[in-house]
Write the structure tokens for this entry.
Amino acid sequence: MIDDLAHRRRAARPELRAHVEIARIDHWFKNVFVFPGIVAAWGIDPAHLARNIWARMAAGLLSVCLVASSNYVINEVLDAPSDRSHPVKRNRPVPSGRVHLTAAYAQWIGLMLGGLALGTYVGPSFVATMLVLWVMGCLYNIRPVRSKDLPYIDVLSESVNNPLRMLAGWHIAGTSWMAPASLLLSYWMVGAYFMAMKRFAEYRDIGDPARAAAYRKSFAYYTEEKLLVSIMFYGSAAMLFLGAFIMRYKLELILAFPLVALVMAVYLALAFKKDSAVARPEGLYREPALMLAVAGCTVLMGVLLFVKIPWLHRVFTPTAPTISAPR
């Protein structure tokens, strides 16, 4: 098998199509995580929504996509040695020899510069967020840090892209207020929950601890039990921070909690399936139960952001002395 792979790499030639593949345009759907930032800013501060919101959305979303593709390119290039130990990923463009490495590095920088240039239409705060998103991709992939090789840090450093995407959406909306820390922290922990689940599904699919460690260094430390414990931690932290945000900013969202819990439960159940889509999130749209739960949760939260339910506030009125914040 190894000899066959080496032969195919020698026979392969760089292809334009392969350079398009490593930009992972099919992963751009992940940037839908920008939209909750736009919607949250709109629901909390509707009076200050930017007038040119549609143009800002178009420029901002394309900027996020280009910066994300820049991170995907460097990930593909630097992961090639370990990808050769993976039964599926060894056929990716870089380990199979279909990418010109010098051109790939130029592609990495070019996509980043293009994304930052587009972001200037939205504003300096948005550009700064995109730059942080790119830097986090560098820290995740490039030595000496290469956080993806460090257990737990790998999940936390990759999932921090979630609050950065939300913050990008917040800046696109044009509000002058800062995004609530509780909302960003909840979004980060939700991302960590899903990312740890991806690790769990990958680890189970490989089925051999030695081969898993050869593919991903952090797998030398992880076990199924350790990953499940971390998943529990991230899920609990996400809900605690979301609760803090809801109680302070939009109490009506508490009615969406059962659907949020349903989405997380369905996702957990999927992770236990053989050859799970959780290990390859681009295929999650083929999971009808998950898509139905996500759609229902999204619609309900979107509606609740823009309505007021007086009786709900009466139900949750404090019935005991509260501790005031220090002045």
Remarks:
- Residues 1-177 form a domain with the Tetracycline Repressor; domain 2 fold (CATH 1.10.357.140).
- Residues 17 and 98 are 9 Å apart (CA to CA).
- The chain has two domains: 1-177, 180-309.
